[in-house]
Amino acid sequence: MRYLKLLLIIKFLSALTISITGAKANIVSSDYVVKSSGIKIGEFNWIIKIEEEKYETKISLKSIGILSRLYSFEGEYLANGVFKNNRFETRFYKQYWKTKNKEKIVEIELNRSLINLFQDPKEEEYSRVNFSEIIDYYDPITSFINILNGHNLEKTIDGRRLYVMEKSILDTEGDF
Please, what is the average pLDDT of the chain? Predict the structure, then answer.
């Protein structure tokens, strides 16, 4: 599994670097097989389109194989925004996740600060986050793309939590 992660990062970073340095519209699409303990459990597709100062990205996941009868899942993560000063900035993010027992939708609108947050079903837990004070946070996909693009630290919002993604040196001998 760790080799799949490393290959995913290397392949996508290479494609992303080529796309960012190009002129007009660039589209990068990569398909992956997700395995756990050597057993195929899902498919993963990542598309990013960069056109002048705008970007769109979509990640799709779907369970496949024999284990999908026991645990089926599907999900889609969409983000779009602007690319300026060598940084991707989220304007809209949508997360859709479905399992046999649960379906969840999160939509976030940003323009440096939070404009709108939609959740279905709505979070029942009391929020410990003051969403009105959020400045320069990005969705998880955009944060990851910014790290791949050379930034070391990204403030991230996923609709429920605030956290920091930080670049670190990978230990190729152990798990990461």
Answer: 84
